Amino acid sequence: YKMAGDSMFPDVDTDGSEKSEEMEIVVNVGGVRQVFYGDNLNQYPETRLAELLNCLSGGYDSIFSLCDDYDPGKREFYFDRDPDAFKCIIDVYYFGEIHMKKGICPICFKNEMEFWKVDLKFLDDCCKAHLSEKKEELEEIARRVQLILDDLGVDASESRWKRCQKCIWKFLEKPESSYPARVIAVLSFLFILISSVVMCVGTIPDLQVVDAEGNRMEHPTLDSIETACIGWFTMEYVLRLISSPNKLHFALSFMNIVDVLAILPFYVSLTLTHLGAKLMELSNVQQAVQALRIMRIARIFKLARHSSGLQTLTYALKRSFKELGLLLMYLAVGIFVFSALGYTMEQSHPETLFKSIPQSFWWAIITMTTVGYGDIYPKTTLGKLNAAISFLCGVIAIALPIHPIINNFVRYYNKQRVLETAAKHELELMELNSAEGKAAGSRSELEDLSREGKASPFYSSRIKVSHSDTFIHLLSEEKHYRTRLQSCK
Predict the structure, then answer these.
(1) Quick one: which of 135, 148, 140 has its CA closest to 174?
(2) Is 195 exposed, middle or buried (0-12, 13-18, 19+ CB in 10 A)?
């Protein structure tokens, strides 16, 4: 870019007789002066810089509608914008695309592009991905703020049943909403632990009793505790289902499916015990009941409902499917190769334990994962060498994808903490602005805009405040704005 001097500007006739292609303009953005030529700017006539070419003939009203200040002596346009973002944006006039520099806030950069009237289609795909990620974060923050606002707000137009539904839903689903809700969450957590312990203790032979047919069964006391726990789980699930705002979404949710799987075996086995004997042989009924009782292990997954750490682990694993797939692929290739080599090398030994390649898969699995039960092992020298190479390759194959999986977990965990903090910050900003009489609108306006499919004025304006740039509610009345450079940093 060429630095501007005062002598570079020809006189511009007020009638606009000079051709815009031959004009030069100086733009001062945050103290950084740049020279632009008309032939470059006219490539994109709808941008703000291109409009500056013709604004001089329109008088000061036209000039100040486009810029913050203007020096008629130097014929220099002043803008109180972010100079770093501006240097990236003007690349569109020379290269036809824009790359966002590292360290610039993507949301602020988007706002800068909108100010300079440059279309987002000129932003490179790699930068668009970063911008999309930030947009998703803001949408998640907005969703969390809206949920909190919905909990705090009371709509007088709603029926008593609707208000009761909301209270029950908040009572069971949001332990942080009140002290009684926190107590219910702790009780639910204890019932899950008690039920899991009872399931394990009930399998101890010394604590089992023998029925009239000579079959061992759980102690009646443990059975009563199990029944009480199932009663609690059933009541909790039914109340949550009744109070849920979206019944279909509730029924298809993964955690709620786990709840059903934890409850259903009890009632099915109870039905089979009392009614199945009339329809099938008693031995078949007992086998079916035993198989259903094994499904009680699903209730341990109910702990994830009360543990943010387990939820974070689940989401991190979902985001690591690619790495987990690579891990399985590495192991599958290694298992096939080393089991085939092991079978071939061990055939010369008369007491070989490698009877077939499929049987050798088990040996390859426990060797590559460094478990090594010792039930199958090589006896020839070449077989032992193959085993040594296999477990070394197994360690490498397992170690390679582990680091990305851990990074996904740490990244997601930190992101959730940041989003939670940001949502609380947005609420604090709203409270401060509301106290100062600067709230964006009433709750009725929020609902009207929500019905139109727009973002809530409460959180959309506040998100723009705290993330995009302009308003500082704690400043004096004389100055309410800050520069984009200050905002990005």
Answers:
(1) 148
(2) buried
Q: Domains plus CATH for the chain?
A: 24-147 (3.30.710.10), 163-306 (1.20.120), 311-431 (1.10.287.70)
Give the C-alpha distances (Å, rounded to integers) separating 224 from 2, 41, 43, 132, 423.
86, 82, 81, 54, 45
Chain-wide mean pLDDT for the chain? Answer: 76
Q: Which residues contact 137 (CB under 8 A, 6 or more apart)?
A: 415, 419, 422
Note the helical H segments in 202-298: 220-243, 247-252, 254-275, 282-294
Higher-confidence residue of 62 and 455: namely 62
Sheet holding 69-71, edge to edge: 32-37, 24-29, 76-79, 69-71
Report d(CA 386, CA 389) in Å as an integer: 5
Tell me which residue of 182, 175, 154, 142 sits closest to 427, measured CA to CA.
142
CA–CA distance from 475 to each of 82, 346, 481, 482 (Å)?
A: 20, 82, 8, 10
pLDDT digits (tens, 9 = 90+) for 60-89: 888 888 888 888 888 889 999 989 889 898
Q: What is the pTM of this model?
A: 0.53
According to the model, what pLDDT value does residue 407 have? 85
* Listed residue (79, 132, 86) closest to 112, CA to CA: 86
For residue 256, which phi and psi values (nearest 5 degrees)? -75, -30
Dihedrals phi, psi of 79, to nearest 5 degrees: -135, 135
Secondary structure tally for the chain: helices H, strands E: 20, 6
Task: Report residue 476's pLDDT band, with 50, 70 and 90 as the boundaries.
Answer: very low
Distant-in-sequence, close-in-space partners of 109: CB < 8 Å, separation ≥ 6: 85, 88, 100, 131
On whether the CB atoms of residues 26 and 75 are closer than 8 A, the answer is yes
Whether the CB-CB separation of 441 and 458 falls below 8 Å is answered with: yes
Distance of CA 475 to the CA centre of its chain: 34
Going by C-alpha positions, the residue among 447, 462, 464, 420 that lies closest to residue 153 is 447
Count CB neighbours of 25 within 10 A: 23
Q: In whole angstroms, how far apart are CA 190 and each of 160, 196, 248? A: 32, 10, 28
Q: How confident is the model at residue 185 (pLDDT cuts 50, 70, 90)?
A: confident
CA-closest candidate to residue 481, choices 79, 210, 169, 36: 79
117-120-126-130 Cα dihedral, nearest 10 degrees:
90
